[in-house]
């Protein structure tokens, strides 16, 4: 048996190593595409186009505008006499936000009274609008806090906020780690599915059936090489995310061990797809049919908390959902098995039925 198994695994490795296109795509997905997506999928919005309507023209109103434009979040494009003048620029897309400062703004500030400003945000792009609104709220609150510091008042609460694990609150680290897990997930599904269906189409699977090779030997021979290739692609990916500033605060050995459990679930999905597909086109379309929902609902692209409750519950059966939690915990928080065992147990609980189902269906067809 070991001789036959060695021959099958060697054949699979030889076929993959002789295909330069597949090798290039694996390396490209694990390095270049990972870096591009990590940097491009950031949700930090900069250089928002700001218009100002200053009816007050006081020192306080000028300081407010200066506060808004002191960083690279807002860029002052123009000042207007009225909202009617600014409306055309908003409609044309020349402005993202318009701030209207009332005439009594400076006087109310000087008297220690509450002052308000009008804010109009272009909501045609909901994501940008939400970010712009949050930035305005944050910056005006900071401006008000500075005024309170300059004119102390009795009582009040001043929170001292410390951000752990991602102190500058950039999305690049989470995006890089999400792409690391998603790239491995895609490869572990597509490689075994494409390899097994290719054997069907070329007729070599029929020739293998007349040999003494057993079903479990062929099954193992089909899953070992993709797992090894995906694990191998992990190391150039680790170099890329390190260059992107993502630290590894946890144990690399723990990450590789949990990654192996995760990949077994993904490979099982690939084998399952291959057994129900007769052509390579069917296998690829079926793979992407299942991949896209799992990728978008994993928490790496959109927050789980923003999803409907029934989706939050349903996505718990996805191995990718749990492995992203494991990856961010290991890399950013320095978590270990003591903290991550629930997600590791979930990977095992998900992977065993998937592996068993793919094996039973493969054996039935064999």
From TrEMBL:
* Keywords linked to the UniProt accession: Cell membrane, Membrane, Transmembrane, Transmembrane helix, Transport
Q: Identify the main location.
A: membrane
Q: What region holds the ABC transmembrane type-2 domain?
A: 133-365
Q: Where in the cell does this protein reside?
A: Cell membrane
The transmembrane residues are 21-43, 176-197, 218-241, 253-276, 283-304, 340-362
At the top level, the lineage of the source is Bacteria
The way this protein sits in the membrane is described as:
Multi-pass membrane protein
Q: Which residues form the signal peptide?
A: none
| Listed InterPro entries | ABC-2_transporter_component (IPR051449), ABC2_TM (IPR013525), ABC2_TM_bact-type (IPR047817)
As for family, the record states:
Belongs to the ABC-2 integral membrane protein family.
The name of this protein is: ABC transporter permease
Query: What is the organism of origin for this protein?
Result: Sphingomonas canadensis
């Amino acid at each position: 048996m070991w001789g036959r198994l060695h021959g099958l695994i060697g054949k699979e490795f030889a076929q993959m190593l002789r295909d330069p296109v597949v090798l290039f795509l694996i390396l490209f997905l694990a390095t270049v595409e990972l870096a591009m997506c990590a940097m491009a999928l950031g949700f930090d919005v900069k250089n928002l186009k700001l218009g100002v309507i200053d009816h007050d023209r006081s020192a306080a109103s000028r300081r407010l505008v200066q506060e808004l434009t002191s960083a690279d979040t807002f860029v002052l494009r123009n000042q207007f006499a009225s909202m009617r003048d600014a409306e055309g620029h908003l409609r044309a897309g020349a402005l993202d936000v318009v701030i209207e400062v009332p005439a009594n703004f400076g006087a109310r500030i000087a008297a220690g009274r509450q002052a308000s400003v009008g804010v109009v945000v272009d909501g045609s792009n909901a994501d940008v609008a939400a970010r712009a609104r949050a930035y305005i709220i944050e910056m005006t609150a900071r401006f008000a806090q500075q005024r309170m510091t300059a004119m102390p008042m009795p009582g009040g609460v001043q929170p001292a906020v410390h951000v752990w694990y991602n102190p500058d609150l950039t999305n690049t680290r989470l995006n890089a780690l999400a792409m690391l897990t998603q790239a491995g997930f895609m490869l572990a599904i597509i490689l075994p599915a494409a390899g097994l269906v290719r054997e069907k189409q070329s007729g070599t699977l029929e020739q293998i059936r007349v040999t003494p090779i057993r079903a479990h030997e062929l099954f193992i021979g089909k899953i070992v090489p993709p797992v090894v290739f995906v694990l191998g692609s992990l190391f150039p990916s680790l170099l890329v995310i390190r260059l992107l500033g993502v630290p590894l605060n946890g144990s690399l050995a723990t990450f590789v061990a949990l990654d192996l459990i995760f990949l077994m679930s993904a490979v099982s999905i690939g084998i399952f797809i291959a057994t129900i597909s007769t052509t390579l086109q069917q296998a690829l379309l079926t793979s992407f049919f299942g991949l896209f929902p799992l990728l978008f609902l994993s928490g790496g692209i959109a927050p789980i908390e923003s999803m409907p409750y029934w989706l939050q519950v349903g996505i718990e059966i996805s191995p990718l959902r749990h492995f992203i939690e494991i990856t961010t915990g290991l890399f950013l928080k320095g978590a270990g098995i003591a903290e991550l065992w629930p997600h590791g147990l979930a990977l095992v609980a998900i992977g065993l039925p998937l592996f068993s189902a793919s094996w039973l269906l493969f054996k039935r067809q064999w």
